[in-house]
Amino acid sequence: MQHRDLLSRLGLELPADGAGLSVRSPIDGAALGVAPVTPASEIPEVAARAQRAFEAWRSVPAPRRGELVRLLGEELRDAKEDLGRLVTLEMGKIFQEGLGEVQEMIDICDFAVGLSRQLYGLTIASERPGHAMRETWHPMGPCAVISAFNFPVAVWAWNAALALVCGDPVIWKPSEKTPLTALACQRIFERAVARFGDAPADLLQVVNGGRDVGEALVASPLVPIVSATGSTRMGREVALKVAERFARPILELGGNNAMIVAPSADLDMAVRAIVFSAVGTCGQRCTTLRRLIVHKDVRDTLLPRLKAAYASVPIGNPLESGVLVGPLNDKGAFDGMQRALEQAKADGGTVTGGGRALADQYPDAWYVQPAIVEMPGQTDIVRHETFAPILYVLTYETLEEAIALQNAVPQGLSSCIFTTDIREAESFLSAAGSDCGIANVNIGPSGAEIGGAFGGEKETGGGRESGSDAWKGYMRRQTATVNYSRALPLAQGIKFEIAG
Amino acid sequence: MQHRDLLSRLGLELPADGAGLSVRSPIDGAALGVAPVTPASEIPEVAARAQRAFEAWRSVPAPRRGELVRLLGEELRDAKEDLGRLVTLEMGKIFQEGLGEVQEMIDICDFAVGLSRQLYGLTIASERPGHAMRETWHPMGPCAVISAFNFPVAVWAWNAALALVCGDPVIWKPSEKTPLTALACQRIFERAVARFGDAPADLLQVVNGGRDVGEALVASPLVPIVSATGSTRMGREVALKVAERFARPILELGGNNAMIVAPSADLDMAVRAIVFSAVGTCGQRCTTLRRLIVHKDVRDTLLPRLKAAYASVPIGNPLESGVLVGPLNDKGAFDGMQRALEQAKADGGTVTGGGRALADQYPDAWYVQPAIVEMPGQTDIVRHETFAPILYVLTYETLEEAIALQNAVPQGLSSCIFTTDIREAESFLSAAGSDCGIANVNIGPSGAEIGGAFGGEKETGGGRESGSDAWKGYMRRQTATVNYSRALPLAQGIKFEIAG
Amino acid sequence: MQHRDLLSRLGLELPADGAGLSVRSPIDGAALGVAPVTPASEIPEVAARAQRAFEAWRSVPAPRRGELVRLLGEELRDAKEDLGRLVTLEMGKIFQEGLGEVQEMIDICDFAVGLSRQLYGLTIASERPGHAMRETWHPMGPCAVISAFNFPVAVWAWNAALALVCGDPVIWKPSEKTPLTALACQRIFERAVARFGDAPADLLQVVNGGRDVGEALVASPLVPIVSATGSTRMGREVALKVAERFARPILELGGNNAMIVAPSADLDMAVRAIVFSAVGTCGQRCTTLRRLIVHKDVRDTLLPRLKAAYASVPIGNPLESGVLVGPLNDKGAFDGMQRALEQAKADGGTVTGGGRALADQYPDAWYVQPAIVEMPGQTDIVRHETFAPILYVLTYETLEEAIALQNAVPQGLSSCIFTTDIREAESFLSAAGSDCGIANVNIGPSGAEIGGAFGGEKETGGGRESGSDAWKGYMRRQTATVNYSRALPLAQGIKFEIAG
Amino acid sequence: MQHRDLLSRLGLELPADGAGLSVRSPIDGAALGVAPVTPASEIPEVAARAQRAFEAWRSVPAPRRGELVRLLGEELRDAKEDLGRLVTLEMGKIFQEGLGEVQEMIDICDFAVGLSRQLYGLTIASERPGHAMRETWHPMGPCAVISAFNFPVAVWAWNAALALVCGDPVIWKPSEKTPLTALACQRIFERAVARFGDAPADLLQVVNGGRDVGEALVASPLVPIVSATGSTRMGREVALKVAERFARPILELGGNNAMIVAPSADLDMAVRAIVFSAVGTCGQRCTTLRRLIVHKDVRDTLLPRLKAAYASVPIGNPLESGVLVGPLNDKGAFDGMQRALEQAKADGGTVTGGGRALADQYPDAWYVQPAIVEMPGQTDIVRHETFAPILYVLTYETLEEAIALQNAVPQGLSSCIFTTDIREAESFLSAAGSDCGIANVNIGPSGAEIGGAFGGEKETGGGRESGSDAWKGYMRRQTATVNYSRALPLAQGIKFEIAG
């Protein structure tokens, strides 16, 4: 039981059965253990503990809070191999990507440590003599993090590293499908806390469980921030509950990410970028490339090369070196993929690939051939995000047309263009260009660096995480004016004098 | 009919009766005219026009967009007296405050003109060689502005000056009670447009009407930004509808603003600040001072002085010089005030003032004596925002207690402390201090400058308008990475190489 | 005497002769009048007056200071035609460029008005509990502006609009060759001051005179900022004097600006850009294009077109519509140009054009044919800035070679590339690309917008003016930490306890 | 030979005699070893090596450069005890302060790592359609760091951590008095480089030696940045040489730091703050408190308490626990102190303390009693920075007077006020308040956190190091405009059309 050792090294001693979340590896369907759940009825107490932690943590100087995150980064460096492997085991992405996910956690910790001496507000010129105006960012309160199975650890880290530095305790509700990686992160965090010394209790609470647990968390009046990653459907429910009580959402929902391949594109690079971003993580990234918008003059060159590359992509056990495509997460994902392909065919599409793979070897797992679907137009199914490796191919003649196609979907996460023409590239990045939160030139839509803000508008939910000033999402802004004179002038020069 | 001349100078020739919104002046109940309404059924076409304007306006360089706002500022300077008077006539605030409101419009125009050459995004250090990362802010789309009767023109200007500079057309739904000032603003805006020359049509559309018009606007899929000012009840409805379609709300809702008066306070200044912020605009500002939290050692000095000041405040026709308190907006406001005072008495409060005033002179208007209510504690009615000049007085012993009282209401807009002790002042402004979006020292809670961001968390809605980087609320953020190398390195150092 | 009327409209009634600076128009050598001079011995009193103005002005709220600059902008709008014409008359640039220079003054005023509510410092996370850290920008003191003949008014405005908003009075020493435009600006400024109402006296003092006046100003201990535009030789002298007393220089010195024309360039655009930037202002802009680095594959296409364009450029009286090239400023400029051409020939260069023009018509003025000089290599004369319309042409094979040529001069002001290839464009803009402060793609090196920071490193002097955060050059930075606790923790956790 | 072991652990195996810098410990005058020197004649080759390192390092992505600094921080954590002890041994400050200095190095490394993903420039709204404007910060070139004996390692780290992240190699010329700590830092840095893997050679070069070495470095045309810490005399020489060649100085020169003690001050805290900041490091910090400006009403309470505290301060071997004041650095410092005290007496001052201490125990070292000198006024000697523990005491009546005294010295580094009155505190921090780069409230002038910018105007030299945007001092700014349209509009709307 190799994975027992791994879990043990990560501090997880779980029962093989009993009540809780039974976890099976998408690699082979093997049982990994049973994770304890937090009943929804306990969420009020969880939130109350977070609130108590907040009342202490908010007054700890931010650079000292940063020290905790620095220690977390050190612990993650130490645990990188093990945690990366557990990500692969529990979620099914290839080990290289599991490592990449942990590296992203480490990167965001480093970034957050730096931030802990910044969290800059502004001093502002006041219009009144003897007055000083300034804007300060203060801790906001407990932050709920609801994460999805496909990035079981990195998304938490994006949120937690910033939230902790910003003074906010974290309550983490992981996907039901990936409770183990969450528990492992909790152990790692606890090691950092132990080295730190005097942190308040309950800075991080992991609550495993089902939909009811998430709902209780989202509804808690003690949780002013809810960061949720997942489907648009889930996101809309969260958004409504959060809006009801005027809390702050940070939503990272669906993407339906496209690449425009222009006539001048470097096709060698384009093919490599397409394959990585369309089939990597078996098409289960929110930034997976799902739509290819190819100029009519290069389509006939590009498509055969792409199909050849698809045919050669090694599919298999994601723990094995050399494999680039692991399994879909479960049968539901497989069924959804098949339904989408059927619909695409019904809409006039031509499907290459898309069938089940390795069924003999892994009867309880859901490997697939990534699919390329040549479509006659951008039909409904193309405008829908199917969380599987389906790449729809569309053709364009003018850049305006390509950009219009790119934008004509409900989602707004990521996008890219391959071109060597600066006019095309800058037009794509302009106000009249891509409407996505992420827009790349000569790189695929996936694989963002942590230094930029991550997220997008429309059904993607409008949230921003990770770099730039995404940290402001975890703080409250205070505009203060201090009158240090002995007079009481009014703004806008208003006169209002009582006889006194 | 003096107001006819005024309306005429402002370009408004309105029927005296007929279909539409019948406007009566709160000063004396006199009819001012009937404003035409836009049927809710026309909102889709209004939105479509705004969208067309957007498609042109977004590609006009921002400094050129700023020129339109500069011209708007010039036109407002020219119309200041008239527009300020119309504000008084239609809304009932004193003329000085009417002028102040127009000045605020002018100020935000000046500010927005400067912004039009900034709208700064970031260039960001990329982790990959041969890559350039940057973040740009782009126009977002049509912006709905739903404004309230109490600031009938300034709040529109806060939004419109920024939205226009940011590239967004504006659809303005004013309060049903103040359609005339909105129409006057539209005329003023049109003059600026005419001087500008080549602006697209429909950059500003005013839609007067009732609740159904607002609802249609909030629901429009072509309106990605909804900026709404008003009650928490209204705001929650907007928030839910906006959340449903993942649009962006900018909410400025209720306030329940307090002042802490510390033992070291300069009481002369405190009395003046209290009177201005508690009775100004007849208690109908969102930043009106509603709760006075006085240290037990100064209460007995402060209260008599305050009552004396209240007794001497000139109440009357707000167009008359010397008057400081005009009427409540309507009978509903008066009834609400009386109910609140009754409840306060029932809770053990002692009421000074609060009765109707000038009923003989203005039988169709609702003037009141501002009320001071000494409360035994912060009961429910104190925690509720009553839009009238009621000042609840509470007593405290320690600063911690005072801050806890200040924060223990559902609203989070504005707050202040009067103290000369820097430890108290900075504690009040610290992470453990006031939880409001605005926190002042030695000035009242009202009368913000436009250079700072305006708004607050909790039931205040979380939006920010006016200064600082509130302009970002009107734009979409794009994180772009440009690969100008011939290699395709992945972020986080991931290795993913296809054989091909 | 048409110019008499113009001067009179601008408020200038000058003697035709007598002591002072005798000004002659470079258009025809005609006398324009005699400007009074300020003896160097009076500079201490001038500086003392500025210091007194500073002590009042620094405490005027910045947005109020902005109002003065807004009024200045209005006055400049009113005087645009006249002032633009005077620029042409006194300096010799074409009227379109004279107008452009005034427009630039107006633009910077608008920008500075917006800045007057910003001047943002930072609030910063402190490492110590009960401590608040912040950084504020304060007025610095009187600012000397030493401007050059070629931009006789815009450069002053760049400095003055910012300095005034930042709280600094200005002492302006214009070029000896352009005292009249400076005096006209002073009159315009005085009109703004009169409308403003309560500004302290002496916010702007113009000191005309020779080198000794400038030297006295640069040496004044009451002048902490010296902004100087002109030659590298002059700049070095200023730099040394300013360094001696630890004052702050803002230097805008020589440029030797190049354009790289890549194989993929749009040659239609390139030709137009070259002509404007190489012959505009008769080659007397600091950003004039002086070096053309053409790829070997396009040279033979580009050069003939360029020579044809040069041949057709209308040279003549810059007040006349249609004329694009006016005179050199004086005989010294002409002689310098001829010497440079001689040296270029001696170095192996082939000169096209460069001779005197219109000598019959304007015997006392110095019109020239702009010169194209094809050089065998980048010899010393190419590396030297000659203030005249000489365009040296060099050839390259690889982009690395082109960038190396571009950077291998002592100056570092402006640069550009014409290419449609994004890899070339971004490489040119990268850390390994152009070493200039300004680097453009598909526009010439001249004609910067005021929204960006203007200036460059190396012999260009390192200063930055105009947009971005160039305003910080006019203020002093204060880092403040406020301890509002009752403890005294030391930074870096140092323990230092006296028995006490 | 205990220090041999220490040096050995730090990788230093030095000859006991021979050519080079002979280092003696100020603790007891014992020889510590001989440090090898770099002849001035080798500086050109040193600079050439740095330039080669620069050409490689500038193209390494900044976050990767940050990784080197992160490793440096880890190595410093490991070496903290040893390096802190060597600081004490070589420089003479107490061990707690030696540790604090190393902690500051660690802090700035953490901060710089975060910066390595920021180094933010701006994207800026362009006034021209189809144009994108942006500002990017690029590596500048080799950075010379000239450091002083009193902070032998921290000041280097402030500069080096930023310079390295910014892409600039460092050439470090330490004080002649502290070559060993510099060599130890180089060893530590080399360990980080070894772990990093692929850094170019010569990112850090330490050049020990005398004044000629520093002069050669300052004059090197390959060194565009010179960061120098030390006396005003030295700084002026550096400034002139750097100005001569238009390089960029970062000067941290003299301070003459004052504390104002107001009537409302918490005297317990004030006494502790005064003692730490006046006698700590034996008065040899650039931020040492040198002037005490006491309100007349508290002087008689404060001074006796202060004298009592001075009398009880433990003086002695700085390696011993409990000791708070170690030796002066050398006899020169002692003589300078005595001369200053003589002059102060001659000016009417009353001296308490100031004599030599522990002369019997340490005949070859220069321990002193810290001095309090009550002055009748701010005479020349008070306005002069004497690098020794002399505290001049002045008296004031009004805050304006106190601020005027505070500002009436040639230096402008640090300052503070002790008051609990917010009006006094904010006035002190206002535009009309302290003219120093650092201004504190209720903490002493020394012991800055690394998160703020450090430095000051006037004879302090104007440089800024450490936090905020001090990193910009190590980079060059590039303003780029990209035209991605097919038109060529000119800024300021200029019309310039050639027929061709």
UniProtKB/TrEMBL annotation, chains A, B, C, D:
Locate the Aldehyde dehydrogenase domain: which residues?
21-479
The UniProt record lists the EC number as: 1.2.1.3
Recorded hits in InterPro entries, A to Z, give: Ald_DH/histidinol_DH, Ald_DH_C, Ald_DH_CS_GLU, Ald_DH_N, Aldehyde_DH_dom, ALDH7A1-like
Which Pfam families does UniProt cross-reference here? Aldedh
Root EC class:
oxidoreductase
Q: Which CDD domains match?
A: ALDH_F7_AASADH
Q: Which molecular function terms from Gene Ontology are attached?
A: aldehyde dehydrogenase (NAD+) activity
Q: Which residues are responsible for catalysis?
A: 252
Subunit composition?
Homotetramer.
Q: Which family does it belong to?
A: Belongs to the aldehyde dehydrogenase family.
What is the protein's name according to its record? aldehyde dehydrogenase (NAD(+))
Give the organism's phylogenetic lineage. Bacteria, Pseudomonadati, Pseudomonadota, Alphaproteobacteria, Rhodospirillales
